[in-house]
Design brief:
This protein is of the alpha/beta class and 274 residues long. The chain is 32% helix and 24% strand. The protein has a domain at 28-119 and 188-269: 3-Layer(aba) Sandwich (Rossmann fold). Helix 3 packs across helix 4 and helix 4 (141-153) crosses helix 6.
Length: 274
């Protein structure tokens, strides 16, 4: 990203912003962020910066708060009765919970893909066109182009180019999951959240998604919850180990897996609990 020469056009998208400049687009910052469901404290005082143009993996035993951390980033927990939070959560310096932050706009900037692929029972085309249409992109060549671009970025175009008018539900599980990724990408998000996106898929479909995430991180912030430690090690740049709602360790993936600093991290990655 960014041009090595020519006029200085380095805006907020520059990954090498000079000191004092706005952070690169797609930067997420948690500052003393806690979250509750009724009396349950799901997250305790999280401090974490998630960098753009990288894959960050969230790992930890079931119930440790991975999904809550992920879902905070596009305010999906807002819909849960009894959900509350404290502390700050910033996207590119904007307060995610500010009154002026429209959750539907936020959810376009921060796309989400779930474990169970969730295509709408409509055509392949309509699934991907859904967001752009909501934004007023009606029909015609521009919409066609947006849909094709999103499907290409999701590495699905070649498989569905002749099936755009078929129901999305006729696609295989792996294709449906890539369709959900394409649907998110059609909104041109800054951040893509994925909650155990491959746990219902076979190994070859899983591999395709992993390769795709590795590719997409060139121009997106990717946050991946996975219970597959090999997957975290393969595709992520940084890994965050959560335990009991707290960050135990956050580091470059290679360092975290080869030289964990905390005994609990070591116990978890060597399979002694989880
Ligand atoms: N909708 C909810 N209502 C009540 N408690 C919840 C809800 N979602 C999560 N929790 C609780 O919050 C804690 C963290 O859950 P979660 O973030 O889903 O963990 P993980 O994704 O790591 O398995 C757990 O104690 C869980 O029971
Ligand atoms: Mg979860």
């Amino acid at each position: 990203m960014g041009s090595p020469s020519g006029p200085t056009t380095a805006g907020p998208t520059s990954a090498n912003a000079p000191d004092g400049a706005a952070p690169a687009l797609g930067t997420v910052q948690f500052e003393g962020f806690s979250a509750w469901f009724g009396k349950i404290t799901a997250l305790h005082e999280i401090d974490l910066t998630i960098a753009p143009q990288s894959v960050t993996a969230l790992i930890g035993p079931s119930g440790c708060g991975k999904s809550t951390l992920l879902r905070s980033m596009n305010r999906l927990n807002d819909r849960v009765p009894g959900a509350a939070h404290r502390g700050r959560l910033l996207l590119d310096g904007d307060d995610v919970f500010a009154r002026t932050m429209d959750p539907s706009v936020l959810r376009q900037r921060v796309g989400m893909v779930f474990q169970r692929s969730t295509p709408f029972p409509r055509t392949v085309f309509d699934n991907v066109a859904y967001g752009p249409r909501l934004n007023g992109l009606a029909r015609g060549t521009t919409l066609d182009h947006v849909v094709e671009t999103a499907l290409r970025r999701a590495a699905l175009w070649e498989e569905v180019r002749d099936r755009l008018r078929e129901s999305a539900l006729t696609l295989s599980g792996g294709q449906q999951q890539r369709l959900c990724i394409a649907r998110a990408l059609a909104n041109e998000p800054e951040v893509l959240l994925l909650d155990e996106p491959t746990s219902a898929l076979d190994p070859s479909a899983t591999q395709r998604i992993e390769e795709l995430l590795y590719e997409l991180r060139r121009d997106l912030t990717i946050v991946l919850v996975t219970h597959n430690l090999h997957q975290a090690a393969r595709v992520s740049d940084r890994t965050v180990f959560l335990f009991d709602g707290r960050i135990v360790e956050s580091n470059q993936t290679r360092a975290l897996f080869t030289a964990p600093r905390d005994a609990r991290t070591e116990a978890f990655i060597t399979g002694r609990f989880g």
